[in-house]
Design goal:
about 300 residues; seven-stranded mixed sheet; four-stranded antiparallel sheet; 11 strands
């Protein structure tokens, strides 16, 4: 195989909230906070510059998710990665907004664009899923909107789902980070039959509630017994923060991804108030520098390559 010529490239990838209560390990939604990465070919080795929230990463370039995905595509195309990646993000890390999946999608797409190849959403999704298995985050990051990831015989199937434009989303997170490994470790090895039976009905209600902006179905659908009760103790103040979200007008509140962030669904005009109420509890008495509270909107575009 002949090495391909490298060219400048830019990609942008949205963050995602996943699980959404009864949608555990299946459902994800892209939201409007982003990772943007650019590549400039130069020099004789690959360099990585981080900005924004990525400044908090301690991993070197060999262990960085974005750089790993970039190098994997280069290796598959027999091309030495030479140049500089500049990555900037507004997304809080390890707070339940899919930062790892977002970086893997971005790295794959950036490398393919730099090689002059089709930087497809399908390719970026499958590569990210193969690396870390978090399809419920990778799918909305790649495709945008509300997505369900369905196991297939060989590869997972990504299903786009209807989402009412009348929904508002409020996000809040403390300074505490919760890793996916820690969140997985909190789950029991067995669940009660009752919990298994209740889950599919709640999930069906959640999907209809998200499509029609039905407050009752959203609240029922965000109720969960498979993962949320076991992960809430990892987030100090989470119970009270969820209560504050409901008091401020939320229709439903749950853990975003594996935490430590919380996501609430509410009327659009109440999202700022709900986010502030949850943040006020999660960050009470703490340094506000790395605490989060913000109204968010769905991103319907997903991965965007070569921003104009």
């Amino acid at each position: 195989m002949t090495a391909l010529e490298l060219r400048p490239a830019t990609v942008r990838v949205p963050c995602s909230t996943s699980n959404l209560g009864s949608g555990f390990d299946v459902l994800g939604l892209a939201l409007n906070s982003y990772l943007e990465a650019t590549f400039e070919p130069a020099g004789d080795r690959l360099e990585l510059e981080r900005e924004g929230t990525l400044l908090g990463l301690a991993e070197d370039i060999e262990n960085d998710h974005l750089a790993w995905a970039f190098r994997a595509v280069m290796a598959a195309n027999d091309t030495e990665p030479r140049g500089a990646i500049r990555a900037t993000s507004a997304v809080p890390l390890a707070r339940g907004l899919g930062s790892s999946a977002m970086a893997l999608v971005a790295g794959n797409a950036l490398a393919r664009a730099a090689l002059g190849l089709d930087a497809s959403r399908d390719e970026a999704f499958h590569a990210a899923h193969a690396r870390d298995g978090h399809g419920d985050n990778a799918a909305p990051c790649a495709f945008g909107g509300l997505r369900a990831v369905i196991p297939g015989e060989d590869e997972p199937y990504v299903l786009g789902l209807p989402l009412s434009p009348d929904l508002g989303f409020a996000y809040a997170a403390p300074s505490l980070r919760v890793t996916t490994d820690a969140a997985r470790g909190a789950l029991p090895s067995h669940i009660a039959h009752r919990a298994a039976v209740l889950g599919p009905g709640r999930f069906a209600g959640l999907l209809h509630g998200l499509a029609t902006a039905d407050p009752d179905l959203i609240r029922i659908g965000l109720t969960d017994e498979l993962h949320v009760p076991y992960r809430l103790p990892l987030i100090p103040g989470a119970h009270n923060a969820m209560g504050a979200g409901y008091d401020a007008g939320a229709w439903g509140v749950t853990i975003s991804g594996s935490g430590s962030g919380l996501i609430a669904i509410c009327p659009q005009e109440m999202a700022e108030r709900v986010a502030a109420a949850m943040k006020g509890v999660l960050c009470a008495g703490a340094d506000d520098v790395d605490c989060w509270g913000m109204a968010m909107e769905p991103d319907l575009n997903g991965l965007v390559v070569d921003l104009g």
